[in-house]
């Protein structure tokens, strides 16, 4: 199979979908790998490192899309890429369709095959291609939140871990999944007073067992969230419904319950956000203020630490990419249910319920295609 790796062109997105080591593994399996010039530079990989492993370098994004049967990316295609995607071309990347209708409609019109990292799912309901970036984003949420709590950046002026004789900051984490768990661990490690909320009592029991003493668990409900908002300095939105739009747990009217300078970090922004006042921002302009509350809503948080993120992501995606290349998407998805659940759009038909429900589009059973 001919595999193309374009350079990411989303604002400040420095990750790349395939490392030189990953290219070598695909080439060892008999495939051709074409990498757009400088695609790996932001993650610390030069064109020479790819060519040394047998990959070929193409000069621009147009030739990369034109050449490839399978495109491997990190972030969803943006508008200037829509017209480059061909009928029957397999695109393997994060899509997050349910949060952005123009992208969904563009991919339907392209008649390509869209296999989304975020909906590849194991039998135990875990999401193996979302986990590594969720781990990065969860930890980064605290790193960024701690920074924006500083007064010069318009936060409350609180040191996350406090000092002897002064209480630490209070951190509220909404959601006890991978992002929330990593956020709580990071905040606890920095000495904050942490509360993590979830709707699953079983998950809260597990978290209570594994978390340090400065992390409290609390059942998530609108009443309980409202009760806590006024006393916390950093609030992290970490809610995920696979392939679907995130629910709004913090609504606009709740902002008035918070102290001025409170920082909101919405990690669910690429799924629509679990904070109603959330809107996607970039690393270039990461924050904005509504009602004296600072919002950090960068949609590609792991892009700020591309070396770590690229290695973590390709560790997870490479085995699936090799399987897709070796067998072709139809056979691979027919034999591997994890990959089959990753299929969102096939030749203009929506085959993932969360996407069809988000925009009231006709749903087609994926079994009709594989």
Automatic annotation (TrEMBL):
Keywords: NAD, Oxidoreductase
Molecular-function GO term, any one: alanine dehydrogenase activity
Database matches in InterPro entries: Ala_DH, Ala_DH/PNT_CS2, AlaDH/PNT_CS1, AlaDH/PNT_N, AlaDH/PNT_NAD(H)-bd, NAD(P)-bd_dom_sf
Stretches assigned to the Alanine dehydrogenase/pyridine nucleotide transhydrogenase NAD(H)-binding domain: 149-297
CDD domains: L-AlaDH
EC number(s) from the headed UniProt entry: 1.4.1.1
Reactions accelerated catalytically: L-alanine + NAD(+) + H2O = pyruvate + NH4(+) + NADH + H(+)
Coiled coil location: none
Pfam families attached to this UniProt entry: AlaDh_PNT_C, AlaDh_PNT_N
All residue ranges annotated as the Alanine dehydrogenase/pyridine nucleotide transhydrogenase N-terminal domain in the record: 4-137
Enzyme class: oxidoreductase
Family: Belongs to the AlaDH/PNT family.
NCBIfam families: alaDH (TIGR00518)
Protein name (record): Alanine dehydrogenase
